[in-house]
Amino acid sequence: MNTLQQLLTSYAYNILGSWEEAKDVVQDVMLERLNRNGDPVENEKAYLTRAAINRAINAKSRQKKMRSTYPGEWLPEPLSTETADGDLHQKDILSYSLMVLLEKLNARQRAVFILKEAFDYEHEEIAELLDISVENSRQILSRAKKELKTETANNFLKTPQDYLDKYINIIHTGDTARLEQLLSDDIILASDGGGKASAALQPLIGKEKSLMFLSGIYRKFYHDSRIEKIFVNHHPALLFYEEDRLVTCQVLELQDEKIHRIYFLRNPDKLAPLQH
To answer: What's the topology of domain 3-148?
Structure first.
């Protein structure tokens, strides 16, 4: 993937929360440009960037409308930040916790926030890309920050070296007392099966429910699974395999070395970028 196409795909992915849709958006933009038969464009990069971002915004708006019929929770598609530097650079991937948070915003708010806070665009550049006024760009960013209750795009927290090993050991041994110590009081578990794999339809809130769920599903479904440690979107995660088939990606969000959120990705379409 060439450098510009790679950059455009990262913009589209961060707006859409879907790697596959992002690739489709950029491919369509590139094909349209080729079909113009080489018509001269004053600034090729600006032209393609504008086209990709606006197409991604439109695709996100359609995606949000379709989500009303999505079975259960919709979670962003995870990407490995260990093997990223091929088609996508690590620095261009937003953290998973922020990707989840960005779902509160409409498509245009999300684009403005990402361009300004993650990619350091000036409001003048954003206004030109989105065909809005500079003042409107500032207002959209301000509203987005209030909605998100955050001022920054990426605040990557370092995970202790042995944290995932400790977590795996605890769930292997079924030590609920030690597992409870790892969980924050306000922990939330969310699952996305997309109607194609079993998953909890509603988030589980609180330590007691989360502890019962984690202990129960591991004993019932994952005790004999092969488990791989990985980082996705800058978060520690576990990949669970049945034979050679990836069936679950479990993403952990930590705060003060306690597990604050757990995201279970079980929709096979969303696991495809992690399958190897």
So the answer is: Butyryl-CoA Dehydrogenase, subunit A; domain 3 (1.20.140)
